[in-house]
Structures are given as C-alpha cells and as structure tokens.
Fold each of these.
Amino acid sequence: MMDSRLRCMIDASVIINLHHGGVLKDITGLPFDFLTPDIVLAEHTNPPPDEVLRSGIRAGELPDVLVQQAAVLAPQNRKLSIQDIFAFVLARHHRCLLVTDDGRLRTLAGRQVTECHGTLWIMGEMVERGVLNPAAACTALGIMLVKNARLPAAECEERQKAWREMQDSTLTANRE
C-alpha cells in the first residue's frame, strides 16, 4: 500500500520559527512526513537536535552522489548556506515539498520546479486540520515575529486577522 502522507523537506529557518512560536511539537499532528538534512540537525543548538527529532522530523543523510550535486550547486548559489543547498538537493532527490522561509532558497527551488512553502503554510495547515486553534496560531505567529522571524509582514497580518475572525466566530457560535 502506498503511503499517502505528504513528504516535506523542512529547513532550519522553519524549524527555528516553529520552535520560537512554541508549536514545533505540534507538527506531529499533521499528516506529513518531515525530513531535514542531518547536517542541519548536527548544527542545531536552539532547538537542540533531540527536540527536533521528538517533533517527528527525521534526519536525512546525503549519499555521495547528492553531496556531489550540492558541490556543483554551491558555487552557482554562493549566498546560500551548504545546509540550504543540502535541503534543496534532498528535496529534489526525494521528490518532496521544500519547506523554507529563505527567499534565495525559494528562488532556487522555483527555478528547479520544486514545490516550496514556508512557516505560514505550516501554520495554516495546523489551523485548517485542527492541530492548533486559531487563537493559539495567532499567538505563536506573534511570538515568532517578536523573535525576529523573517516572514512577509503583510501576509502575517492577513493570517492573524483571519485567525482572530475565525476565533471570534467560534466564540460567537459557542455562546448561541
């Protein structure tokens, strides 16, 4: 039987944002398989690798052939970290969605026809699937922004407004 779970390569920027928002542990409630390059885990201190692994994110190793692909891409993409390039190469190899907030990595993914989303997409999926209620998502996003998450301001405002409205309509319906 084929596994129907969406496979996602998640990079450090999204892991850090979700951790700062206090919702990294909640991604286990999504019907997705998350993978991150082992080099990302090896260099994580905040959150520590054990916390990342407890959230259900698995570490992916790059076989030599993928390391060679990364070595070819690195000089052409000097402004990307090797961790970002590894995430891209692994996502392309496994044919999975790339989840990153790095604009340069998103550009590379777009040029290579790799589907890409970020923290706000993950948060939206958590609300839509009932993993987080809208108020908790709104609070978590606010904390991420206070902790200097590099997310598009206009889209953050739109999401927070929508989540507040969802919460208000839920409260109104519960009172009736």
Note: Residues 153-175 form the longest helix (23 residues).
Amino acid sequence: MWIKICGIQDISTACMVADLGASAIGLNFYAPSPRSVDLETAAAIKSAVSSRDTTVVGLFVKHSLIQVKSICEELSLEFAQLHSDEPAEFLAELAEAAPELRIIRAFRTHDPDLDHLADFLAECDQCGKRPDHVLIDAYSPQAYGGTGQIVPWAMIKENYLYEEWPPLILAGGLTAKNVAEAIKTVAPFGVDTASGVESAPGIKNCQMVEAFINQAKIV
C-alpha cells in the first residue's frame, strides 16, 4: 500500500514520517493553506529525506504551468499533485514541458457518481495525456483538501473503473481508526492523509502517524 502523509512543513517532521515508513510526503505550495511551505524550507526538506526511500510530492493549487514546472525542477520533484480543477489541456502541456514528471490529479467530490471523472479522462484522451494517478478527496467550498471530511467509499468502489482508469489514491478524512476499513472497501492503490494525523492544523503527531501507517499496512 502506497501511503502519503501530506502537509509536511519542517525537516524533523519529514524525517519522522519517512522513518516511520511512509511511501511519500506532500509539500503544499498553496500559500493560503495552514500547511504551506516556502521554497527554501521545501528544499531543505527534500535534501533531508533524499537518502530515505520516500517520494516527495509537490501539491499545487491555482499555480500556473510555469510555476509548477519551475518549482518541480528546482526541487527535483518526481510528482506534482494538481488540486484546483486544472483542465485536461493543462496536464498535456505540463507533460510536454516536463516529460519526466508524474502527475496526480485530485478530484474533490460530493457527487452521487464519478461521471465528472469519466468526462475529464475522456478529455485527457483527446489531449493525449491522462494523469498518472487520480486522487479522490472530499469536496469543501472552504478548502482544497485537509478538511477531515470523508468521501463516499461505497460510491467510489461501485463507480471507479479500476482496470481502465489511472491508479486510485484515496484521501478525505482518513485516520488510523478508519483507514483499514477504507482500504478494504475501496481497494485503492494508495491512501493520503493530512489532518488525520495532526494534533493541530499543520502539526503532525508522531503516534498518530505511526498508527495510521501501521493500520494502512495491515490490510
């Protein structure tokens, strides 16, 4: 199980999360977020975990293609997570500008089905580039993720075309108490959490992180 802990803001937390066995950490470059990091801090974090078997993912909201490409190149990031309804054309242009970059396209949903995702992937096919992974998070008009709201697991399981669509990363209100059930229900490629392992917004709790990773791995 691929496990991502998102919203890392300092070196000590990044190393703690990596040492506990997370597959990836997320660095949030959306300045209004309480979990955002600046480029200098992000570079220090990336350097600190470079010797560990942990992928660093850049999270982008309302960034231009040039900004995404520039930040990913400066930090040598392998993954960019797009979290603000970027169109299919954006993915195609980013893939052309940075062909080595793997793209996670996030979808915030409260819909009764995944028709909007099916339509988006059809548009991607027309443009010549699908996301490498799809992340499904809970919709909130107040925030782009990190809300602690749970997505409808049964609906996702029923509607996600696992054999045809990109590997699924499940987010949205996941904690140590529910991540095992979520994995059993949805059968995603990976899971992603931020607020679910925090003692306060942006403050990761070591015990909560360890419990989350352990529960995600037992399924």
Note: Residues 115-127 form the longest helix (13 residues).
